[in-house]
User: What shape does this take?
Amino acid sequence: MDNVNTERFSGKADVYARARPGYAAEAIDYIYRALPPRRSLRGLADAERGRELPGQAADNAVFADVGAGTGKFSELIARRGGEIFCVEPNGDMRTQLSLTLAAYPNAHITDGTAENTTLPDGCADAVVCAQAFHWFDPDAYRRECERILAPGGKIFIVYNSDRSVRGNELDWCESYAAHSALRNEREIARRAFFGGYVLTAEFPNPVRYDRSGFAAFMLSHSGSPSDGDEHYARFTGSVNAIFDRESVGGLLVREFVTTVYSDSRR
Assistant: This one.
C-alpha cells in the first residue's frame, strides 16, 4: 500500500463510520466455523505435539484485521470476545478506529500496512481484510500473512457488494461498463490471490438509508469529492437525484451482500 493509497481516505473517516455498511452477522459466524479447532498455541508443549485441546473451539481465536479502517469488521470480532490486532495506516481512520474500539481491551491498534503490519511472527490464527484488498500489493500481502499466521491459520478476504437492481453509480462519472470492468478485475484478483483454490460464501446484508445517510455513504468513497471541491455541488445534486428516483417512503434500500473469500486448501 503506497502513500497515495494510504491517504485516500483522509477526511472521510467520519462519514465512513456513519454510513458504510457493517458485515452480515452470518458472515462472522461462517468465519469462526471455518477456523480449525484451536490448538495449544505458540510454543506450548501440546502445540509442539500438534494435539488439539478438548473444548478449545475457534471462539477464542486471535485475529489480525489488516486495513481495519474505522473498525466496521474489528468491532464485530472484539464484541464477540476474540482478541484482535487492528492494522490501519491512515491517521484519520485510526482516530475513528480508536473511538470505535474504546470499550474493548481485547482490541489492539497499530500503525502499519498490508505489506508491513509490524505484528509479531505467528501472532494470529486468522488474517482478515475487509473492504480493503484492492489497495494492497497482493504478493507482498501474501508473504506478510504467512509470516504473522500461526500454524494452521487462515486468510479471509471480505467484501460488501451492492446487488441492488439499480446501481448507485453517478450518471456523470464513469459509464456502467467501466464500473463493471473494474468489479470484474477486482474479483479476478481476489481469486488469483488464493491460487485458484478459492472458497466463497455469500450472506445478505441489506441497508436502509434516509437521505442524509445515503449522501454520507456516497461521500465516504475514496474518489468522491470533498466539500470545497469544484465537483462537490454537482456530485451531491446527483446523489439527491438518485435518492429521489429510487427511495420509497423516505428510505432507499441497498441490497448489499457480504462475500467471504478463503483458501479451499487450508
